[in-house]
Design a protein that fits this description.
- With 209 residues, this protein is mainly alpha-helical.
- The protein folds into two domains: 63 residues, Arc Repressor Mutant, subunit A (Orthogonal Bundle), CATH 1.10.10.10; 136 residues, GntR ligand-binding domain-like (Four Helix Bundle (Hemerythrin (Met), subunit A), Up-down Bundle), CATH 1.20.120.
- It is globular, with a radius of gyration of 17 Å.
- The N and C termini lie far apart (39 Å).
C-alpha cells in the first residue's frame, strides 16, 4: 500500500466517520477533541481538515473548527453518473491487479461488514463499508481517479442509504458478487457488479424521498 502522511491518515479517518454518519451532517468538528482521540498534536488534524475542506467534506475555519457539509440533493443524480463512470475504472483496475493477499484482506472486511449488520451495529458496518471500498480502490493504483471519487463521496448520502431497512443484507450479497468477480480476475463482471451495487443504493435513496 502507498505511504500516507499523518495528515492523510487523519483525513481518511475523518472521511470514514463522515460517510458512515458518526459525524452527522452539519455537526461541528473540534480540532482538540479529534487530536485527543487520535493521540496527536493539533497540527496534523488542522492540515487534515484543510484537505477535507478542499474536497468538500467540511466547511468553515480550519483553525477554529469546521462543520460537516450537508449532502447535495440537487446534484445527487449527476454525482451518481460520475460515480458509475469513475468507480467502474477503479474496480476494473482492482480486478486486473489484485493479489491473493489483497483478496484475503477484502474478504475479511466483507465478513466484518456482514457480522456488524447481523449484530445490529450499523455505525460500525458503515465504517467498515467505507474501508472495504477504499481498500479495493487502492489496489487499482489510480490515485487521481480515487481522489475525484472521494470528492464525489463527500456530497453523497451514504449515511441515509446505509441506514435504510434491508439495505445491509443487500449490500452483503453485492459485496460477495464483487469479490467473486475480483477473485476470478473477470474485470467486466466486476464492473457490472459494482454498477449494480451503486445503483441499488441509489434506488433505496429514491424510495426514501
Amino acid at each position: 500500500m502507498e505511504y500516507r502522511t499523518k495528515e492523510e491518515q487523519v483525513a481518511d479517518y475523518l472521511r470514514e466517520r463522515i460517510i458512515s454518519g458518526v459525524y452527522q451532517r452539519g455537526s461541528r468538528l473540534k480540532q482538540a477533541e479529534i487530536a485527543e482521540q487520535l493521540n496527536l498534536s493539533i497540527t496534523p488534524v488542522r492540515e487534515a481538515l484543510k484537505l477535507l475542506e478542499a474536497e468538500g467534506y467540511v466547511s468553515g475555519d480550519s483553525y477554529r473548527g469546521a462543520r460537516v457539509v450537508p449532502f447535495d440533493a440537487a446534484a445527487s443524480g449527476e454525482i451518481l453518473s460520475l460515480r458509475l463512470m469513475l468507480e467502474a475504472q477503479l474496480v476494473r483496475g482492482a480486478a486486473e491487479r489484485a493479489t491473493s493477499e489483497d483478496l484475503a484482506e477484502l474478504r475479511a472486511l466483507a465478513d466484518e461488514f456482514a457480522k456488524a449488520f447481523e449484530t445490529g451495529n450499523r455505525a460500525m458496518a458503515r465504517g467498515i463499508n467505507y474501508r472495504f471500498h477504499r481498500r479495493m480502490y487502492d489496489i487499482a493504483a489510480m490515485p487521481q481517479t480515487l481522489h475525484f471519487v472521494q470528492i464525489l463521496w463527500a456530497r453523497y448520502p451514504f449515511d441515509l442509504i446505509n441506514a435504510a431497512q434491508g439495505r445491509g443484507a443487500d449490500a452483503v450479497k453485492e459485496h460477495d458478487e464483487i469479490l467473486d468477480a475480483l477473485a476470478s480476475g473477470d474485470a467486466s463482471a466486476a464492473v457490472l457488479s459494482m454498477r449494480k451495487h451503486i445503483e441499488s443504493g441509489w434506488t433505496v435513496l429514491k424510495e426514501m424521498q
